[in-house]
Hints:
By secondary structure, the protein is an alpha/beta fold. It has helices spanning 4-14, 63-71, 110-114, 116-120, 125-138, 154-167, 184-201, 212-218, 252-272; strands at residues 19-32, 35-48, 52-56, 78-83, 86-87, 95-98, 172-176, 204-209, 221-225, 232-237. The strands form two sheets. It has a six-stranded mixed sheet, with helices on both faces. The protein has a four-stranded antiparallel sheet with strand order 2-1-4-5. The radius of gyration is 19 Å and the shape is globular. 42% of the residues are buried. One of its GO terms (molecular function) is ATP binding. This is Carnitine transport ATP-binding protein OpuCA. Keywords: ATP-binding, Nucleotide-binding, Translocase, Transport.
Amino acid sequence: MVTKEAVKAEKEATEGKTPKLEIKEVGKVFKTKKGETTALEKTSFSVSEGEFVTILGPSGCGKSTVLRIAAGLEEATSGQVLIDGKPVSGPGPDRGMVFQSYTLYPWLTVKENITFGLKLKGVPQRERDHVARHYLQLIGLEGFEKHYPVQLSGGMKQRVAIARALANEPKILLMDEPFGALDAQTRNIMQEVLLKAWEESKKTILFITHDVEESIFLADSVYVMTARPGRLKKKVPITLERPRDFSVKGSVEFAQFKDELLSLIREESLKAIH
Length: 274
């Protein structure tokens, strides 16, 4: 059942500027031999041009399902996804995707991985070299262009994955817990690397995470999901000043956002285990 709180949250999430990405009444039901499982109730929200949005929620709430539907990797049972007002019917170059698992091509160098999509598009070598230099500098991997993925740490691999996604100039960057497999220190560094890249590119980003501090540090807005079956519970605008660095995590304002989000997530996590 859709509550008044959920309806209000969806209304808040769709107000404002003309959206780059619209999730409109999107629902997902998985069918198995044992019956049907509703992973996602009809959910609506939007992401504006250049906005950094994180989706936060308890495990199994449908966060990744929303992202996969937006990417065109999963088909919605109901509703639709719009980019610039046009329906999404499958994967496309207008959306870049970064997964939690490392998805680099092991037989290609760092530089070749970054420019792989450009090569497929027929972009001339000189232009590809220019793009590679730019992103190698942006992600702090100058001098590693000839290395292969097996020679890189987990954090370095994800830097390359982010650079590869940005190099293809997508309209939207979709990120599914990309730092979830990293140790705490590397994760913190990667958050700052991503913010630096976003501040330069101003790409529209939809980022899935279960980490409350990460969601606050990165986002313009945090959308909190309910326990399964997932739906939008609340939109929390993050009003911390930009540009941000790691020191903001020690501020009173950051602590206030953290307390609010932890309370919301705890409510849903308790529902999930009862």
